[in-house]
Design goal:
single chain
Length: 283
């Protein structure tokens, strides 16, 4: 902050300070020995403010200076309103991020609870003959079932019919429900850990409904790719397709900020997790 001059009248000092404010120059008036000192806060604006002071001293009653007080007050009110909005947003975001996960990300927690419950009912994917497993898995038909479905004349297209059996019977939920089944404790723990780390943040940002649409659609798409490209005897289980969808969204976001330390760290973490999840998808 630097002193650029003095004015003898308080009215003129306030008027000039207000005028500087309308010009985007921050200043401060201070009474010293019966004169008002004029201080400029930004060193880069000293020359501009000094030139304004010379013009002001030539005609301090000019209309542009007299109207500057009202304009400065309007700008001050506008700035205060903006600061209040910023503070309100900061409070809202703080409350949002510090809220319990059950409140801030209820869908993510619900998905984790369902997956854990299904894992217990299916003995971590080992009870494949059980009712829960058979109701949720996207499984291949036996050859006898394929004959019953398409007839012996249709067995030349056996592989396709084998794959489409459960879906062609109207069991369309099987394109999504395998995300709740996991094969083994480690498979479950890894997917749930990834969902717990990245799910809540994304759900907070895009909302629970959009998050659900994203999760389900990527799960269905991932399941379809694995279903048609995998072996016809494969049982499709696990939330890897949905997790890949979440990773994809985060990768796009982290790529945009990859030049920042936080963005680079997030990007590296996502790449590692994608690699681990890819291994689980094909093992």
């Amino acid at each position: 902050m630097r002193l650029i001059g003095h004015l003898n009248s308080k009215t003129h000092a306030e008027r000039f300070s207000a005028y500087l404010m309308t010009q985007g120059i921050s200043s401060h008036c201070e009474l010293e020995d019966d004169a008002w000192e004029l201080w400029i806060r930004d060193e880069d604006q000293i020359d501009e403010a000094s030139a304004c002071l010379k013009e002001f001293e030539e005609n301090p009653d000019d209309a542009r200076y007299r109207g500057a007080v009202d304009e400065a007050q309007r700008l001050a009110r506008q700035k205060e309103k903006q600061l209040q909005e910023v503070r309100a947003n900061q409070v809202q975001m703080t409350d949002r991020w510090s809220a319990p996960l059950t409140k801030a990300a209820p869908l993510t927690i619900a998905l984790i609870v369902i997956c854990v419950a299904v894992a217990l009912f299916t003995n971590f994917g080992g009870a494949y003959r059980g009712a829960t497993f058979q109701a949720l898995a996207l499984a291949s038909l036996t050859q006898d079932q394929a004959v019953e479905l398409v007839g012996s004349d249709g067995l030349d297209n056996y592989s396709t019919r084998l794959r489409m059996g459960s879906l062609s019977r109207g069991e369309v939920w099987r394109s999504i429900t395998p995300i709740f089944i996991h094969h083994g404790v480690f498979h479950l723990l890894f997917n749930m850990w990834a969902l717990y780390i990245f799910g809540p943040q994304l759900e907070r940002q895009i909302g629970s409904v959009t998050f659900l649409v994203l999760y389900v659609s990527t799960a269905a798409a991932g399941g379809a790719v694995a279903y048609f490209l995998g072996d016809e005897r494969t049982l499709l289980v696990g939330a890897s397709g949905a997790i890949f969808g979440l990773f994809g969204v985060w990768l796009v976001g982290s790529w945009r900020i990859r030049h920042t330390p936080a963005g680079a760290a997030l990007y590296r973490q996502l790449v590692i997790l994608l690699g681990i999840n890819a291994v689980f998808s094909f093992v």
